[in-house]
Amino acid sequence: MTAMTAAEPLVEAEGLQTYYGRSHVLHGVSLTIRRGETVCLLGRNGMGKTTTIKSVLGFVPPRDGRVRIKGADLTGAPANRIVRQGIGYVPEGRGMFPNLTVRESLLMASRAGTDGRRDWTLERVLHTFPRLAERIDNLAGTLSGGEQQMVAIGRALMTNPDLMILDEATEGLAPLIRRDIWRVIRAIKETGIATLVVDKNVKVLLDLCDRSLIMVKGVLVHDSPSAELRARPDILQQHIGL
Ligand SMILES: Nc1ncnc2c1ncn2[C@@H]1O[C@H](COP(=O)(O)OP(=O)(O)OP(=O)(O)O)[C@@H](O)[C@H]1O
């Protein structure tokens, strides 16, 4: 067994069946994310990537299946309880409070990690995102899209997570800002925080992530080390259209 496969599972989802009303969206999704691992979830629009994240976190509870976080069965638990097990969630659309300043947005998220760690302080987040230091007293609602994304990532880091989940963190951003976001995600990876990333920039993800999953119509059809998927343009073409 390699060191990677021996690492503690942070998230174990098994057989998730998720619906929006009568619409059946996830058809038995199972996935594991281990400590320190960087995993990307690929797939065309509307395949169920966001729903997978929301089901794991309890925002859209699965109708069937199990969710374990660090070995504890939290199936059906409210989202705030699941996220408090060491998960920093950066949702699609960023979820800003427009009337809070950057400082307030970051400080209100501050808490120790599940093991008591307080590695990520306001100072460290501002050091990571110098642009935010310049905007510290501005209202979040007045920031550019890229700056808001930085606040969203910074806020998640302030919770001292073991796992960051980033849903479309670079969507709609200018190339330079995008590059900055990728730089930070790489830096996060290097600190040993596990990451689950959903993004349209497949090439960047395949370089960045240890493992790649592909989702097609609510089913995970591929799960391999990213290096293996990089060598399979046929699979990328078939499922993602690259
Ligand atoms: N709140 C909702 N109510 C009803 N249907 C929904 C809802 N959210 C998503 N869906 C449907 O569920 C399916 C999966 O959507 P989901 O957002 O999980 O896909 P995705 O892979 O994340 O795609 P995208 O990249 O476009 O966000 C889609 O058919 C979508 O239309």
UniProtKB/TrEMBL annotation:
Gene3D superfamilies: P-loop containing nucleotide triphosphate hydrolases (3.40.50.300). It comes from the Bacteria. GO terms for molecular function: ATP binding; ATP hydrolysis activity; branched-chain amino acid transmembrane transporter activity. Keywords: Amino-acid transport, ATP-binding, Nucleotide-binding, Transport. One of its GO terms (biological process) is L-amino acid transport. Residues 11-242 form the ABC transporter domain. InterPro entries: AAA+_ATPase (IPR003593), ABC_transporter-like_ATP-bd (IPR003439), ABC_transporter-like_CS (IPR017871), BCAA_Transport_ATP-bd_LivF (IPR052156), P-loop_NTPase (IPR027417). The keyword Heme does not apply. Belongs to the ABC transporter superfamily. PANTHER family: ABC TRANSPORTER ATP-BINDING PROTEIN, HIGH-AFFINITY BRANCHED-CHAIN AMINO ACID TRANSPORT ATP-BINDING PROTEIN LIVF. This is Amino acid/amide ABC transporter ATP-binding protein 2, HAAT family. The lineage of its organism: Bacteria, Pseudomonadati, Pseudomonadota, Alphaproteobacteria, Rhodospirillales.
